[in-house]
Amino acid sequence: MMKKIVLFLTLFAVAELAFGADEAVEVLSTGQHLSGISNPAAKLFFKARIERAKGEPEQAIQTLATLIAHHAHDERWIAKSEYMSAELYLELGLLDAADVTARQIQQLYVGTDVAKQATALRAKIEKLKNEMESK
């Protein structure tokens, strides 16, 4: 039962990102789920989110790498994908990779929400590094 709830919430979040909050409810209530998404970058992004929710961070990173390599021109998904990659690196304990990725986001997307999120993520990473050094 808990897995179904988590899956539903994940699908709702994915649909909300793809279509907006109002359309997300409609998409999920009609059973359309993600199959109605035609944008290949969006499909890869949502696939990575689902893999992450299923506890498969390594697979999610590989999916995001595919998105970044093949759809770097798709401005709607590239920054979000790079940020999720940084979060996944952090989840895996790869602090240096997370920090480098977050720093890159800060420089590439100056003044955007994702750059602000990357700044907050870098502060979290710095705190974790300091805690590890003090042990």
Helix content: over 70%
What is the domain tally? 2
**Structural class from helices and strands?**
mainly alpha
CATH superfamily membership of the largest domain: Tetratricopeptide repeat domain
CATH architecture of the largest domain, by name, is: Alpha Horseshoe
Gyration radius (Cα, Å) is: 16 Å
Distance between the termini: 40 Å
Shape field: globular
User: What composes the largest sheet?
Assistant: none
Number of helices: 7
**Model regions low in confidence, pLDDT < 50 over at least 5 residues:** 5-9, 19-32
Overall mean pLDDT score?
A: 83
Approximate strand percentage: under 5%
Order of helices and strands: HHHHHHH
Query: And the CATH topology of the largest domain?
Result: Serine Threonine Protein Phosphatase 5, Tetratricopeptide repeat
The number of strands is 0
CATH class of the largest domain: Mainly Alpha
Chart the SSEs and their pairings.
Elements: H1 2-19, H2 21-29, H3 40-53, H4 57-70, H5 75-91, H6 95-108, H7 113-134
Helix pairs in contact: 1-2, 1-3, 3-4, 3-5, 4-5, 5-6, 5-7, 6-7
